[in-house]
């Protein structure tokens, strides 16, 4: 009865229907209003280094249709893959080019965006959504502009990839192709869809 | 009828029918939610999705219902309008559907709603940044009547090649002297995709531009979802010498005397009698309650 692997598995959502809905709504408003941090009350205790906020987004959005790619720190923890596989049913893939969602525990070491699916001119929606785990939001050292923002908005999160502004500019230049970012952590989620212009503040 | 049947039968013989929250199963909601996220990220682009059969016929808002079901939460307050009215068949049916399957609060007051599902109108009351407007869309492809092949229209969108649409509008001018398209008037979203705003009157097009609310569009039969994020530039296509113009009405609303709103024609008799009244029933009722009286209106205190 008490299989060791089953005993070690962390629990999923208390209420799969409403917790998934609330997590989705946070992600939806985050992408609709880029840079504005939406509260995400993730009542989860996923295995480290997966953060509760990132886990809540994965459980709300992923299933057997969405291969997940894990960055090195997450892939190094077998419990993370087991947790995601059990609760979402999503295959964990080794090849970033095959992923629909990618979970990144260490944004500083993030692969180039071009390693992930960027969509095609005919089907720009066939692109990856990157879920970056961040420690904090605040200190607006970036300026955002684009759909969803009235005028401009300040934004800051840490940690981010070193060449973040250049990467986002290259991503914007591909529009309507490109990748979409959800930044999760510190009790919230922020979105940087491909439509946003990111500049140094 | 069903309520009567339930109360008259012994409870044990009637199994309680319970629905998953907002009718759809969780996997379907996740699939729709992922489509909504991509639609928001690429404003105006039609994201294909695996639309389900709903317990209502195509053309009755199956796309809008699926989008509403995917975003709806237990704390939401839902308003449903059909051509601006809260009390028409389509609106009543869909409101009842979600009252039954999601047990959410419903309202007819635009300002109180968090999710508004609409067929062919945008409310007159300005929307706020915490609201989601869900449009029911019959034919999402603005180029469909100009180019029937999906493979071709997809490529035209990929290349941002919208010359066809401009030719169509130009031919209107050549034939009629003005752009004769009055509803489903094509718009360009965020400077990139040309989009069908659903069959709203072109009167409502300016309300989409820089709207603080999130606008989601669902087409059930055609299996497409698209979106306009808040504060996004929505430009109605036009020409420098033929700028986009909305309809104007000669007289104010006959019941509430409102001007600058969209009016419906109501036939009064078989002798040519007619009046023009607000298409937005909530807006009209609110104004009448505030004491505004049109030429055929009855003052609020007399009506009671």
Mean pLDDT of chain B: 93
What share of residues are in beta strands of chain A?
A: 15-25%
Strand order across the biggest sheet of chain B? 1-9-8-5-4-2-3
State the helix count of chain A: 6
Distance between the termini of chain B: 31 Å
Secondary-structure element string of chain B = HHEHEHEEEHHEEHEEEEEHH
Which term fits the overall shape of chain A? globular
CATH second-level architecture of the largest domain in chain B = 3-Layer(aba) Sandwich
Number of helices of chain B: 9
EC number (chain B): 4.7.1.1
Catalytic activity (chain B): alpha-D-ribose 1-methylphosphonate 5-phosphate + AH2 + S-adenosyl-L-methionine = alpha-D-ribose 1,2-cyclic phosphate 5-phosphate + methane + 5'-deoxyadenosine + L-methionine + A + H(+)
Keywords (chain B): 4Fe-4S, Iron, Iron-sulfur, Lyase, Metal-binding, S-adenosyl-L-methionine
Function (chain B): Catalyzes the breakage of the C-P bond in alpha-D-ribose 1-methylphosphonate 5-phosphate (PRPn) forming alpha-D-ribose.
Give a nutshell description of this structure.
With 201 residues, chain A is of the alpha/beta class. Chain A has helices at 4-8, 16-32, 52-61, 72-75, 78-88, 164-173; strands at residues 38-39, 68-70, 92-93, 101-104, 129-133, 136-145, 152-158, 180-185, 188-192, 197-200. The mean pLDDT of chain A is 94.
